[in-house]
Design a protein that fits this description.
Helix content is about 30%, strand content about 20%. It contains 8 helices and 11 strands. An 8-stranded mixed beta sheet has the order 3-2-1-4-9-6-10-8, with helices on both faces. The protein has a 3-stranded mixed beta sheet with strand order 5-11-7. The longest helix has 11 residues.
Length: about 220
């Protein structure tokens, strides 16, 4: 693990799946290598052997919210940027490299992210669920979350693909949320109120596994 990495990739876990361990190998393909990986788990979560060294941070409680887990990850992070991604997603190889270019262009940019597109590894019914997200008829203006659209300033980004400067997170006191969802909207709102810009870029991509349509898909929507 790097002593002073540029990025701290923070992944919050509840019950890790076999697919999660498989997807961890995708991090080895990142073109920008100056990063550490922090896994934040429940108190009693047991992890299998990992494909690389990671910093495992365990909660002192049996169950805590996603926002609280992310705050534990921030506290452990050594990087200049905290890159949040879900445990059922994995990054495009240029994820960090493209994000860094945006941060370097303007000091007032506090957060960068992009679409979470359906993983090409998903099966047919999972891709059906992805197609529903991607349709303008169902997602409307939120369609940019699921397919690459033009680069722009936005009000908020989703926590599945959200990279924030750590010094800003420290100023804000982190996510400070006990919500199991919506903590990403809260921290983005706090950043904007503090005068920072939030950038959506179609080249800052993560691949997100969908759940099988219809029942798994509906459950995933409920948890968003």
């Amino acid at each position: 693990m790097l002593n002073n990495p540029k990025f701290s990739i923070i992944i919050c876990l509840y019950i890790p799946s076999e697919r999660f361990y498989y997807d961890l190998n995708k991090y080895l393909n990142l073109n920008f290598k100056d990063f550490e990986v922090i896994l934040v788990t429940e108190k009693n979560t047991t992890l299998k052997e990992l494909p690389f060294q990671a910093n495992v941070v365990k909660s002192t409680k049996d169950r805590i919210s996603l926002g609280e887990k992310r705050d534990l990850g921030i506290k452990a992070a050594k990087g200049k940027f905290c890159a949040f991604i879900d445990d059922d997603a994995y990054p495009d190889k240029d994820w960090l490299l493209n994000a860094l270019k945006i941060f370097n262009a303007d000091s007032k940019i506090g957060a960068v992210g992009g679409p979470n597109v359906t993983s090409p590894d998903d099966g047919f019914w999972e891709k059906v669920g992805g197609f529903i997200y991607e349709s303008y008829l169902t997602s409307g203006k939120a369609q940019l979350r699921f397919i690459p659209k033009r680069k722009r300033y936005v009000m908020e980004l989703q926590g599945v693909n959200l990279i924030i400067k750590k010094d800003i997170l420290n100023k804000l006191g982190g996510f400070k949320s006990r919500l199991y969802s919506g903590d990403d909207s809260k921290v983005c709102s706090n950043m904007r109120l503090s005068g920072y810009k939030i950038v959506y870029d179609p080249k800052v991509i993560v691949y997100h596994h969908r759940r099988a349509f219809p029942f798994g898909h509906l459950k995933q929507i409920k948890n968003m």
